[in-house]
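Project standup — Tuesday

K.O.: blocked on the structure for the chain from last sprint. Re-posting the sequence here as requested.
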Amino acid sequence: MKKLFLVISAVVVTVIAIFLVVGREGNNSSVNSEPAGSESEQAQQYQSELIIGSLDAPATIIAYEDFKCPTCNQFHQNAERQIREDYVNSGKLKIIFRPYPVYNEDAGEALYGAYCANDQGKFTAYHDELFDFMWGKYYKSGNYSAALKNIFTKEVLAAEAVKVGIDREKFSACLAGDTHNSKFERALRQAASDEIQGTPSFIINSQKIVGSQPYSVFKTLVDIQLR
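H.V.: unblocked you, prediction finished:
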C-alpha cells in the first residue's frame, strides 16, 4: 500500500490539488451506456470496478466516495438505502463505487481494502460495515472531527472485515500488498476525467451530482435511464 500512496501523490501533483493525503481520478461517464455484449464481455468491462448490484442492471450510478466522509455516511444512511431497496435489489440499477479518499491516509487504506474484500466476494458487505462503523461510533452523535483522525488502522479494518465473513489472513495480506494498485490508479484517472473534486460525487446519465442529495433527485435521474 505504501507504493500506492507514492503513486497517488504523484498523480495529485499533476492532476488535482487536494489538501491532506490523496486525490483520486476516475473514469469517463461512458460506463453509463450499457454494452450490448455477453455476460463474459460485461464481466471483463467491469473487472476493475467495485459494484453493488447486478452487472447487467440497465441503469447505473457511479459514486465517488470515502468511507470516512461524513456526508458520504449521511448518504449511505438515507438516500442510498432507499435507492438500493427500490432499484438495486430488483435488478434495475447497479452502483459503481469508486474510491476517492480525502480524509487522511487511513481513508486510502480502508478504500484499498474494498478491493481486498471484493476478492472474497464481500465488497458490498464490507462497504456497508465500514459506513455503519463510522456512523454508529462517530457521526450519528455529531463527532465529525473523527474524519481527521487515524481510525482505520490495519487492525481495525481486519476486525471489521471479519465481522462480515472475510478471511482475516487473506485480507491482511492483500491490504499489505500492492495487488490492486493498478485498479486504484485507474480510479484516480477516472475521477480526474470526471472532474471530481470532493465526496460524495455521482455521475448519472452523464450528469454530475455533488453532495448527499435527497432520494428524489436520484429517483428522477434513474427513472430517466430506465425509460
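K.O.: great, moving the ticket to review. Confidence is low (pLDDT under 50) at residues 5-36. The two ends are 43 Å apart (CA to CA).
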